[in-house]
Design goal:
- The complex is a heterodimer of chains A (333) and B (250).
- Chain A is mostly helical and 333 residues long.
- Chain A has one domain.
- Helices cover 73% and strands 1% of the residues of chain A.
- Chain A has a two-stranded antiparallel ribbon with strand order 1-2.
- Chain A starts with a helix and ends with a helix.
- Chain B has two domains: 166 residues, Rossmann fold, CATH 3.40.50.300; 78 residues, no CATH class.
- In chain B, a hairpin with a 2-residue loop joins strand 9 and strand 10.
- In chain B, helix 3 crosses helix 4, helix 3 packs parallel to helix 5 and helix 5 runs parallel beside helix 6.
- The chains are: A mainly alpha (333), B alpha/beta (250).
- Chains A and B meet through helix 6, helix 7, helix 8 and helix 13 of A and helix 2, helix 3 and helix 4 of B.
């Protein structure tokens, strides 16, 4: 069985189990899981970028673009279907990524991080001053329908949970396949040695720009999902603390496993919720200590607990062993 | 009329007041194995860097198979069939030896890289293992490069450069950092791995025993200029070469 087919079956089974479990979960936990899934989708994009060796400190930019486009499509243009809203949000963020990506792909490390942060804060400034989109208060978004079915007060929590779970699972599968593809391996090579990759005859900048666009599309989808579930959007979607949370989540997850980002996202939501309840004035301190512990004891993130590095397929590994034996015989002669 | 693979005409490179290369002209015919010699700072690596697009020449032109490549970047030049290895091997340290070759093969065989086709495609894996075997590296296939010794890294660096089936390969000090005992074995391995191709080779070397044994043409550099060019037997006894390069003028 191919690795991708194996992942498809595994993720599908996990999704079914999650959807069934959702029927028995309390409302507050359903909402928490919905937020974790929506934000985790944004974190997936960060993982794609981290594999290429860069971290965006401004993922709030595409998160807000996705959210605002979905919100505006629902309020101004009467788009009522949640799936269409997510697609619109994702597409708009991908377009923004396609504009900014080629420029940002020239930069690395702190310069890349700061430029992305600056862009998100520019958007924040614009949104705060734009009365047409509600200024600093933002605006409310009506509850959408889902594939022709209306969502009401009683079933909305489960409907949004199911929507975000399905979309998150599909996107996680796609990101997993991407990470295993030749482009995915190229990203790891770029992180290790850009000069060598350029000398092999392929464009490092193009690869980095593509990763940025993919991350933007995922960020936009996460923003749209969040807006649909919350029913409200405001400029804080683009604020630097929001971007910081995504970075926190990505560091917590590591880039070894795409699904790890959802565990990280859930952990973040849980730590935030409970710290906020029991230590209302110092919950950021608890969050910081939690991150510190993860960095100390799991420097490659929680995903490293179960993700194994990719290896040669069994048949190829066997051929390598036979070739090594021939090499050893030649050397002995 | 001889068809040259590489034609460098009056190449010059200055870094501020420093003249790194001056009026360097060199034609290399197909299949030649040319060794560039010279003391440190003589301009050998500057020449290699100009040919492979790492630095742009201040003056002059470079042609590959009659086509102008002056001023192109490393990527475009590699796509036209000029590949290189480095004095300090440029490898992806966290990837395994096989993955390094797979990356190189994937770029060479699938120019527009796939978003869904697996990196560990059976055909590419077979090709990667065959290449590693040619270099005697099959036993290291699944080891991360960070764990490999220097000599193995050198060979892997050269193997990566060969993945594109280049017209011209430039090896920057392929035996540097390798023990005296291993140098000849290493050159034998490299040349055996390239056997059967009409690959034109330029290599930079400091060990004159290696130069005599493996080059069929030697080009001596001094102070950014070519001071001698010819068969090893002629160049290595040239008085200027003895004085400025080999250091045994007496």
């Amino acid at each position: 069985m191919s690795r991708n087919l194996h992942s498809t079956l595994l993720y599908s089974a996990a999704l079914v189990a999650l959807l069934l479990a959702g029927l028995m979960l309390p409302q507050w936990l359903l909402f928490l899981l919905t937020m974790a899934a929506s934000h985790g989708v944004v974190g997936l994009g960060l993982i794609v970028m981290m594999r290429g060796g860069v971290v965006s400190f401004g993922q709030g930019l595409v998160f807000a673009i996705g959210g605002y486009v979905a919100g505006l499509a629902a309020t101004r243009y009467g788009v009522t279907d949640a799936v269409v809203l997510v697609l619109l949000g994702s597409a708009a963020a991908a377009i923004a990524g396609a504009i900014a990506g080629p420029l940002l792909a020239r930069y690395r490390s702190i310069f890349f991080a700061m430029l992305t942060l600056a862009l998100s804060m520019v958007l924040y400034g614009i949104l705060v001053k734009s009365s047409a989109v509600g200024g600093s208060d933002g605006f409310n978004v009506p509850r959408p329908s889902l594939l022709g079915f209306s969502i009401n007060e009683t079933n909305s929590d489960y409907a949004f949970f199911a929507l975000s779970s399905v979309i998150a699972t599909v996107l996680t599968l796609l990101v997993t396949i991407y990470c295993r593809s030749s482009r995915g391996l190229l990203s790891l090579a770029i992180r290790d040695n850009e000069l060598r990759v350029e000398y092999l005859g392929t464009s490092v900048r193009a690869a980095m720009a593509i990763n940025f666009i993919i991350a933007a599309a995922l960020g936009g989808a996460g923003g749209a999902l969040t807006v649909i579930s919350l029913g409200h959007i405001d400029p804080n979607f683009s604020y630097w603390t929001r971007s910081g949370e995504f970075v926190f989540m990505a560091i917590l997850a590591g880039h070894a496993s795409a699904p790890a980002v959802f565990l990280a996202s859930l952990l973040l939501e849980l730590v935030r919720s409970f710290s906020n309840k029991y230590f209302p004035d110092t919950w950021q301190l608890a969050l910081g200590l939690f991150l510190l512990l993860i960095i100390l004891f799991l420097p490659k993130g929680v995903g490293s607990l179960w993700a194994k590095p990719e290896r040669l397929p069994r048949q190829a590994a066997e051929k390598a062993k036979q070739a090594a034996a021939r090499n050893a015989t030649e050397a002995a002669e | 009329m001889t068809q040259y693979v590489l034609e460098a005409e009056n190449l010059g490179k200055t870094f501020g007041a420093l003249v790194a290369a001056e009026n360097v002209s060199l034609q290399v015919a197909a299949g030649q194995r040319v060794c560039l010699i010279g003391s440190n700072g003589a301009g050998k690596t500057t020449f290699v860097n100009m040919v492979t697009g790492y630095i742009k020449p201040s003056s002059g032109s470079i042609k590959l198979d009659g086509q102008e490549i002056t001023g192109l970047g490393p990527r475009q030049i590699a796509q036209r069939g000029v590949c290189r290895s480095f004095q300090i091997p440029q490898l992806c340290l966290e990837l395994t030896a096989a993955e390094n070759i797979l990356v190189a093969l994937t770029v060479a065989r699938r120019g527009a890289l796939s978003f869904w086709r697996g990196a560990y495609d059976a055909d590419l894996c077979d090709e990667a293992i065959a290449l590693l075997e040619r270099f005697g590296l099959a036993g290291h296939a699944e080891r991360p490069v960070s764990e490999l010794p220097g000599g193995v890294r050198k060979l892997l660096d050269i193997a990566m450069a060969l993945c594109r089936d280049p017209r011209l390969i430039l090896l920057d000090e392929p035996t540097s950092g390798v023990s005296v005992d291993e140098k000849f074995g290493m050159m034998d391995t490299v040349l055996r791995a390239m056997d059967g191709s009409d690959l034109t080779t330029l290599f930079v070397e400091h060990d004159m025993d290696i130069v005599s044994a493996y080059a069929n043409r030697v080009v001596a550099f001094y102070s950014g200029r070519i001071i001698a060019d010819g068969a090893p037997a002629e160049v290595l006894v040239d008085p200027e070469v003895k004085r400025y390069v080999t250091g045994n003028a007496k």
